Amino acid sequence: MINAPLYPVPLKKDDTLAVIAPAGQLRDIPDFAKGIAILKDMGFQVKFPRNLWPGADYLADSDENRALEFNKLFSDPEINGFIMMRGGYGCLRMIDRIDLKQIVRSPKIIVGYSDITILQNYLYEQTGLVSLHGPVVTSLSYGTNSSLESLYHCLTGKWHTAITPQKIEILHDGPSSSGQLVGGNLASLVTLLGTPYDFNWDKKIVLLEDIDEAPYRIDRMLTQLFLAGKLENISGLILGDFSVSSYQDDIEKLRYREQVWSRVVELCHHATYPIWANFPFGHCPENITLPLGAMAKMDREKTSLLFI
Fold first, then answer.
1. Of the candidates 145, 153, 138, 148, which has an alpha carbon nearest to the alpha carbon of residue 34?
2. I need a surface site. Which of 33, 38, 235, 279 has the fewest CB within 10 A?
C-alpha cells in the first residue's frame, strides 16, 4: 500500500527538533552532546529526555516505551520534527505499535539512517511520508561540512537541489530513469524479507549501504535480495558507502568496495537500469541527506541525482 507522497512542513529557525530513540541504546554521550550542540548552532530548539534513555544492553528502552515515545512526541504540537539518537537495532520490534493515523493528520520531518530506514520505508509505504535519509545525532560530530550543510538545507525544505558527486562510479550505464527513492541500510532491509513489513521495490530507485560486514555477508545479503526478486524490476540502483571499519586505509577500503561492486554487477548483469556506486551516503563522514519517498531521477547525461 503506497499513498501519494506526504510532505512534512519544512523547519524554520527556533523550531523544535525532538531526539527519539526507536532502536539502539546510547553508547557515546560525548558524541551525543556534540550532536545536540550542532543542531542548536543550526538555529533549532532541541528536546530530549533529561535522563536520556534507560534501556540496557542493545535497546534504548522496551519496545512499548520506544513506540510510546514516538507516538507521544509525534502528537505534541510543539514538536516540529524528529532526528534519531542513533541506529543500531530495534525498529523492527516496535513499528507495529506506531499510530499511523496521526502521521497522516500531521506529517513531520523524520531524519535518520541505518536501522532507522526500516521505520522510514515502513512509514512511506503505509502513509506516503517523505523522510530524510541523513545523519543521526551521534554521527553529527564527525560529519563533513558539506554533509551538515546538506542536512540543514533538507531540514529547511531545500532538498530539491541536484546532487552530482565527483567520485561516482558507473557500474552499469543504463538510460536515465525515474522513481520514488527508497531503501537504505542493506542488512536492515534484508531482515524485512518474508515479513509483513517488506515493501514493493518495483519501479523505485533503490539506495543501499552498509558497514562492518564481512565480504561474504554482503554477498549473502545481495544474493538473497536477488533471489527474492527485489532487484528485478527496479528503476535504478545507487550504492553508497561500504566499508568494514573507519580504521581501513584507502587501499583496503577500495578493495572492499570493489568486491561489493563486482558482486552487484554479477547479479544484475541482465539489468537495463543504471547502477551507480560510491555515492556519498551511509556510515561515513560525507553522509549527504536524501529525501526518501520523493520522486527522483538518475540523469545519465549529467550523472546527477535530480528530485522532481
1. 138
2. 33
Q: Which one is catalytic: 69, 114, 150, 243?
A: 114
Say if pTM beats, i.e. exceeds, 0.85. Answer: yes
Q: What is the per-residue pLDDT across 120-176, written as a single tens digit (0 to 9) for each?
A: 999 999 999 999 999 999 999 999 999 999 999 999 999 999 999 999 999 999 999
In tens, the pLDDT along 64-89 reads: 999 999 999 999 999 999 999 999 99
The catalytic position among 69, 133, 147, 209 is: 209
Catalytic residue from among 125, 131, 133, 283: 283
- Please say if 283 is a catalytic residue: yes
Domains detected in the chain: 16-155 (3.40.50.10740), 169-307 (3.50.30.60)
Please choose, from the candidates 90, 140, 139, the residue with its C-alpha nearest in 3D space to the C-alpha of residue 119: 90
Does the active-site annotation cover 270? no
